[in-house]
Design a protein that fits this description.
The chain has 387 residues and is of the alpha+beta class. Helices cover 58% and strands 20% of the residues. The strands form two sheets. It has a five-stranded antiparallel sheet with strand order 2-1-5-4-3. The chain has a five-stranded mixed sheet with strand order 6-7-8-10-9. A hairpin with a 5-residue loop joins strand 3 and strand 4. Helix 6 packs antiparallel against helix 7. The longest helix is centred in the middle third of the chain and has 64 residues. The protein starts with 6 loop residues before the first helix and ends with a helix. The structure holds adenosine-5'-triphosphate (ATP) and magnesium ion.
Length: 387
Amino acid sequence: MNKLLNTDELIYEIEKLNLNLSKTQKILKKTEDKYKNLLERSSDIIFVHQNGKIVLASKGCLKLLGAKNQKELIGKDLLNDIVHPDYRDVVKKRDDNVYKNKKEASFLEEKLIKLNGDILDVDVCPVPYTYKGKPAIKVYARDITKKKKNELENKLNYLKMKNLTDYFQMILEDERSRISQEIHDDLGQTLIMLKLNLQNLQNELNQIDKNNIFNDKISKIIFLSDSINQKLKDISYQLRPPILDHLGLISAIKWQVEEFEKLSGIKCSLKTSSAKLKLKKDVSTTIFRVFQEALNNIYKHSKATKVNIIIKKYENYLLFKIKDNGVGIKIDKINKLTSLGILSMKERIVSINGYFNIINNKNNGTVINIKIPTSEKYNKNIKKKRM
Ligand SMILES: Nc1ncnc2c1ncn2[C@@H]1O[C@H](COP(=O)(O)OP(=O)(O)OP(=O)(O)O)[C@@H](O)[C@H]1O
Ligand SMILES: [Mg+2]
């Protein structure tokens, strides 16, 4: 049990405690001054604020905010003078949490205003701190203005490239359409006229002499003109199947799948939940071209014996699935920038706001999934998933 102290002993103990307290306070002050000095001289971007006012700032911070000396910055109101209006609420919330939980927050991108009014992009991390014995917040910042500028430039360059690619695709499709029509209408009609003229000539010659020597030769020329006409029709269809414009995407895909089966000998099954889809011309064309490239790849690379195609209408999007039972795509081929076929499939689908992915189906062939939004809801969900 502690013995009871008399008054003198009590006064002596209190004085001893006071002495210790004042010694500790002196040491604390010395350490604080030393740290203050170090912080002020640091070229890192650090500042301390207390009750909303800046109380300490490093050399790096003065430079960043364009202050000539400490005096220009100390005493400034953090939220109203330094933080950009768009970020005031979030900064206040984060700082309140740091005070409350006494725990640092993670780095967050925000904007600050320099003393001359210029705007800076920074990454900041507030940590709990004690200044003059009272709670404060020390902020570490990184200048990311250049990084942000580069990001913006890259984005703009990407958009420029994308617009250019879209424009070229459009010209290409128009040109294909024009040549296809010219072959079909102009050359095709001329060949029919040639054939009719040849048939008339043959008839006239036959009327003069049934056994004339030109009969066989004219028949051969007629046969040749027929096969040229058929070839021209094929080329014209390959360039742009008229069925795509007249009967729509599903009919065009059906036609393409039948042609593919004939050419490749690979069995195809096509399941579709609707006979007709209401799609804009550029959307139909894009999906059709992607289908053609997918089938080309199956023919060239897959060694498949069967292809399953599913076209399904969901509430907010359309699904196109192309699945083969071949050797399966190698993972390293999927994102290779030199794989132009796959790259252009992706780019084309993205250009109509769709979603494209190609996967190796667990060593059982390759699957391509294409989703085309038919309502805003789908886009919102996709954005959420990507965040
Ligand atoms: N269905 C598939 N099965 C197996 N491998 C595939 C399949 N599709 C693509 N690949 C692989 O992915 C690679 C890239 O395909 P991509 O279409 O980009 O280029 P490519 O067909 O080789 O050339 P291009 O399309 O430019 O004529 C192919 O070389 C092939 O190795
Ligand atoms: Mg290819």
